Amino acid sequence: MWMTRLTKRPHLAWVPFLVWVGMAFALSSQSSPPGAATIGAQAGGQGDVLVHLAEYAVGGILALFALALSGLSKRGWLIFLLAWLIVLAIACVDETIQRFVPGRTFSLTDVATDALGAGAALALVAALSWVYRAMHENS
What we know:
With 139 residues, the protein is mainly alpha-helical. It contains 6 helices and no strands.
């Protein structure tokens, strides 16, 4: 039922993505985001990388979802590229925000990690979509 509402009002599909963007920017505007030290300690010092990968994997999937429900689902690989580029732009803005926050810095490594997280999630969705279509075409 909720999916029917979204297809009738595709602009609503952007709400989860925009909430994600707001949360990302809110965390970036803090000198010491909540849980950052704990995650870093538990992940053997790689917590920052894991957080960036996971955060932007979610963002990539939400961007893809919004684009697909906005009518771009028939565009093949182009929709995946567009979702990745949107999330990459958000990553650049996110890191730029951090440049002006005391105790935080702009990091191209973080932008690359964000791009990798989004790209990996989008590649996984594309592969699963291809397998699903292949299985249903042959049945």
